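Assess this:
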Amino acid sequence: MMRAAIDTLIRFQSTAREGVLPPFDEAFLRREMELMPEWFISRHLGRQVSADERKTLDATFSLLVDSTLNQLQTFMLRDYMPRNLMVCEPNPGVLDFQDAVYGPITYDIASLLRDAFISWDEEFQLDCFAYYWERAKKAGLPIDEDFGEFYRQIEWMGLQRHIKVLGLFARIHYRDGKPRYLSDLPRFIGYARKVAEHYVPLWPFARLLDTLEGHAVEVGYTF
């Protein structure tokens, strides 16, 4: 079923052309990531972002924006994940496509395997990423020829999404009155920390996550 989902994603991306969907541009990217300091740090954790923390956030956001905009741009569903894939014939039926944009090629495969509600085994993730990489190349999508660099792009793209979701789920709780989303925040803290610890330029962000987690424990907030 996962391979069917990946094959469908590649078919979707192969039809892409510029000027059809709204662009997932720098302003869009930054607007999403700013949800984290506004809703997760300030509202959920109840603390002000210090000047040094703001510098760390700005530097991290700039790294992720640059990585994103340097990728091939293609059709992007934005929520390509198991909850939006229905069992049917042929598999899968795809829901929740109303927010589709024109954006980086790694976004949807990252959201499929770094899911908001399901944690996949790392070996399984790598197998799926490799399957996608091979099939996408055969389909003529100009993804990076170096799998190591392609995987880094996925990880950094996923981190942008994790940062957004930390703020988004907090906003859904406080603004929209849907508290069940808070229980999924630990998954995204884990995703974000694992990526940030693997790449030297992102180490300051990993330390910021440690600070935030320590503050949450001290004041009794939960992720």
